[in-house]
Amino acid sequence: MPSGLHARSHTYYKRLILGYLLFCLAALFCFSNRIYAETEPVVGEPDSHEVYLKLKKGERVWKDKVYVAPQQPTVYLTFDDGPSKLTGQVLDILQQEEVKATFFVLGKQVEAYPDLVKRAVAEGHAIGNHTYNHVYGELYKGFSSFWEQIERTEDILAETVDIRPSLIRAPGGTFGNFDAFYFYYLDQAGYEVHDWHIDSGDSKRVGVPASEIIQTVRKGPFQDELIVLMHDGTGHEQTVKALPEIIRLFKQKGYVFAVLQPSVQPKHFAVGKVQQPRPSSEAGYEKQLAEAKVHELAMSALEQSRHAQQAADKANHSESSPMIQETAGGVSTSTVVGTKGSLLLTNHTRTAAAPLEVLLARKSLKLDTEHYRFKDGHYQVPLRQLMESLGGDIQWRGEQRTAVAHYGLHTLEYDFVQQELRVRDHGTTTTIHLPQMELQEGTVYVPLRGTLDKLRIGIATYGPEDGVMKVQVGMNLRL
């Protein structure tokens, strides 16, 4: 055979064999993929590491949810930064116009004007969480700071109006403030974050005139479902003046008014470049995600308990069950089975008549009715017994009349001279004036829920069982 023909023949056979091998490999790949596809579960929890990588790239990850679209054009009037002295005037106008709205409140303002929040709830308005102090430098330096303010305000609202809102609005909106991690943690915790469609412009500078506010709202954009941003905080007298005309504008356009609820699809701004750099380690991500899931489980248990209690009340199975308070945009804590941070019953005059058992990770603290108190709807327990059961320690400084409790990196100083509680956490000190604490016959009594929260432990569920009130602590307990 000529050498050229031999070479071409050799090349041909090499290509033929290579093609055959490639065909076999492709068939094997397809077959293995088919087996994998058939054995892979259809649904399941996303891989935590993969989610972390997506979030780090700026991708947003959401839980599957079902929202309900309104049957007619609906507008949600929302007011931020209150309550303040102006909130009563806003409520008067809403009452005259027979309109319901949503108030995103600041925790420190709720402490200053609790009666106005109570009035808003009593008149059928929804309450949302707008953090505690609205200070951007604290809220957006890292999610843990934002989370602490959300939980602090949630606790204040639970104590003031007996609800824990699932609605959140970020001060300044989410654009440029939230990253993908912020959205993800709050979503996993069971919250709904709401931005807005129409900004009334009442806060773009001091003293924006009512005529300009009305004109800004008049420009829209208008669609079937609208969230309108306004403010009822100090300095917004012109917003109050503009409100009647804004309400008339939407009535003329055929809108109905409603309050935001978890069933309303939220408006989210795009993720912009954040103003402050934030460290993001996978270990920190896992820790924060665990806390978020504890909160979501607790809220779910509370909601299920509320529905169960409603069914029981309807069927008249128990005349002694606590009343259930209907809320919009939040969950009532007035249920037999509670959650992290609740332990608050509607019937504040009820006396404790059952032993109390706090279920920890590997042990429990049992107290009979003589060794704990039930005051103003809260369980108060001996500080020493609680700390020692948790694996912490406590010292009594007699000259300063101060009890010092240590748990991990947390220190709680109960000062009975200054009547204050100093919380030291990772080098930061927070002072709480006139805290809930009592010194009786050498025993320091502290609120069970509040103390666990300050130690970053929290409460998952609680409820009566076999004649004992059992409290299950959160998953993030450290012993």
TrEMBL record:
Q: Where is this region: Disordered?
A: 303-331
Q: Where is the NodB homology domain?
A: 73-258
The name of this protein is Polysaccharide deacetylase
Q: Which residues form a coiled coil?
A: none
Q: Polar residues bias: where?
A: 318-331
